[in-house]
Amino acid sequence: MNKKTAKTIIATIVFALSMIWGLSLNSFAISQADADNSPEITVNVVKTDKLEGQGSVKWYKVNVTERGYFRLVLGPNAEADSKDINSGWKCTIFKKGDLTAGIAEIGGVTKNKNTDWLAYYPDTFYIKVENDNDHGSAHAALAPFDLKVEFIKNDVWEQEVNDESTTANEIIPNTGYKGFMNATGDVDWFKFSVTEAGDATITLSPDPDMSDSEGIGFGWNMCLYNESKQEVASVDQIKTTTSSKEIKLTKGTYYIKIYSFAPYNKITAPVNQLYDLTVNYEGYSTAIAKTKVEGIKVKAGKKKATVSWKEISYASGYEVYRSTKPNKGFKKVKSLSSKKKKFEDKKVKSKKKYYYKVRAFVTVDGKKYYSIDSATKKVKVK
């Protein structure tokens, strides 16, 4: 038997089996061009249609033009005769460019059923509706069905695909975001930037309204990296409570990686369990304005006064002010670096009273930002 004859026989067998089982050869694959030519449906609008019997497949496309999350809802139309539903429908959604691997699927649809919520960057998606059990006309779903893409606009949902740092979702500090693992091995990357040094608290917790404690498994891991992809901090096995990491940041871009603690199966991994992520950040130029120099003391010496104070960890420096009156007339007598916590004033006269106060400052891009003044302290020079 030559190769040409063998190929002909195989093709004939496949065709014959497809006719026996009621399988349409068109249901196995579709070109991107054909998918682009399929009927377009609008988000949040019901599309009513029906299959044409065994082997029938219907394709649709939907354009998601805004950031948010969506899901497919499929079920019998209100006018459907229950006896025509039979084994029901199967529905699969595909992302543009890959019509072989669906990103979500529901099967055995004999009443309203929906996929889990999906959160992808705005794109074109393709929907395939077919018989769930197409092994003969007795099982085919002949009733009309209603198909709807429920979409909710939202700028704070994680958007796939963000499995690598190069495709990380950009987030804004002091804004809460939601995300979830869409598979056992899914990884979520986020990135944010800070324009100056400051203090940050990165918080991750199960979403109180949209997560199931029994489905979280062993929870999530969270790692923070700097712009060079060096690990800065991490928290492991975040499960039932809020987990936070406090860290001092310098100016630059940072990356957050969230992944399953135990990505082995859906029992151990928090698949489709929503988490809340927030990077609370305050730059030192803002923080310093709410900070007061504490612990000021003034010690009298012979023809001198020594002023000391408690350190502010992020201060760029300090300024010391002096007056001969308790409530006015203060003039700066010295500016010191952040390493100094004491100043010896020798430009004073014996037997005279002086008043001192100190304020700290932070320098950002050449501009000084000041703290609240310390309490005023009095001293009589010896």
List keywords for this structure.
single chain, 382 residues, five-stranded antiparallel beta sheet
Write up this protein.
The structure is a single chain. This protein has three helices and 25 strands. Strand 13 (220-225) and strand 14 form a beta hairpin. The protein is rod-shaped and about 110 Å long. The longest helix is centred in the N-terminal third of the chain and has 19 residues, at 3-21. It is mainly beta.
Number of H/I helices: 3
Structural class: mainly beta
The biggest beta sheet reads: 5 strands, mixed
Termini distance? 119 Å
Low-pLDDT runs of 5+ residues are: 6-28
Beta-strand fraction estimate: 35-45%
Within the largest sheet, what's the order of strands? 9-11-16-13-14
The sequence of SSEs as H and E is HHEEEEEEEEEEEEEEEEEHEEEEEEEE
What is the global morphology? rod-shaped
The overall pLDDT average reads 91
Give the strand tally.
Answer: 25
Radius of gyration, Cα only, in angstroms?
A: 33 Å
Percent in helix: under 10%
How is this structure best summarized?
This protein has 382 residues and is mainly beta.
Strand-helix topology:
Layout: H1 3-21, H2 32-36, E1 47-49, E2 57-64, E3 68-76, E4 89-95, E5 104-109, E6 113-114, E7 123-131, E8 145-153, E9 169-170, E10 176-180, E11 187-194, E12 198-206, E13 220-225, E14 231-238, E15 243-249, E16 252-260, E17 274-283, H3 284-287, E18 297-301, E19 304-308, E20 317-323, E21 331-337, E22 342-345, E23 353-364, E24 367-370, E25 377-380
Parallel strand pairs: 9-11
Antiparallel strand pairs: 1-8, 2-7, 3-6, 3-8, 4-5, 4-7, 10-17, 11-16, 12-15, 12-17, 13-14, 13-16, 18-19, 19-22, 20-21, 20-23, 23-24, 23-25
